[in-house]
Amino acid sequence: MARYMDFVVSYRFIVLVLVVLFLVVGYFDVATVDLVVDHHLALVHDKVAYFSKGSHDYYRRQPSVYDEVCRVQFIFAGSKHDYNNFPTLQSWIRFADPKCPIEFLRTNHPFVGVLTTAEARMFHDSAFLPILQADMLKFFAVYYLGGLVVDLDVQAIKPFPEAWIGKDSPHSSCDVILGIEANCYDDECVKTMVRKGQVPNWAMFVRRPRSQFLGDLLDFVVAKYESMAPLDKDAAVQEVAGSGTITDFVQQYGNFTTPHYQRPADTKTPRGNLHRWGILHWWRVLEPAPVFAFPSFRRILAASSLDLCH
How does pLDDT run across 132-182, given as a tens digit for each residue? Predict the structure, then answer.
């Protein structure tokens, strides 16, 4: 009996010790998480304040050490009007190098598990706005996976990636490719845009994952969201992770006023609402050999002439 009581006491003592250890470890884990969250929020808010001062040589992310990737990515978030109709997909099957995977990304993609605390909070909090969540998926795709992300109404018209960054292409040294949606800088033509010289997010290319520039842009977007949260269903998504915020960042990051390269527009309108948009704008920034440009594709738009072509 005495031996049994000793066993019970020993067992209870062990359980008590384990409970105490669990509580202690849990307390420090929670404290650590709180510290990390507070620190990250301070960084991203500081980034907004920093860029608002117009500095061009500030980085929080380290330069990418990853190898080049070749991939084409389409984003699915929220309901779509017709899952059985992808009129531009055939163009990517035709023009993309067979070695480059073509992938449809959903909100449960594995890279969601490696988001920072602030990125994850923004991503999940925006679930009630599928358009905003899709915009965030585009950023995550090009930052964490690299390659090309395009909307489902974008049509390829030249080989990818050879015509984009191939050794004989004029932008062979580019690490990042973006573009200007319309060569528009006056009050009249900007009525259909959110910014003059608007930079869109419906087509973005990054040569390798974890681009330093894209990392800074992602931080800037998250910081903008934190300054506006909580959002409601009528939130102006273009001012959160859309063209407005991207354009603001590009201007503050590089203060670009003169294109590195420009090609005159082709105003011809082939086949219905497939308009040729022949403007190429390139800017050099402080990352190793990055350039922003319009690559080789068209966009299908019912009432606009915003197609891209090389």
Answer: 999 999 999 999 999 999 988 888 888 999 988 888 887 788 888 888 776
286-296 pLDDT, tens digit per residue, is 232 333 444 44
Q: What are phi and psi of 158, to 5 degrees?
A: -145, 160
DSSP for 195-255 reads STTPPPSSEEEESSSS-HHHHHHHHHHHHHHHHHPSP-TT--GGGTTSHHHHHHHHHHHH-
Domain positions in the chain: 54-299
Q: How many CB atoms lie within 10 A of CB 253?
A: 22
Q: What's the CA gap between 98 and 92, in Å, rounded?
A: 10
CA distances from 127 to 77, 106, 132, 133, 212 (A): 9, 12, 8, 6, 27
Q: What is the CATH number of domain 54-299?
A: 3.90.550
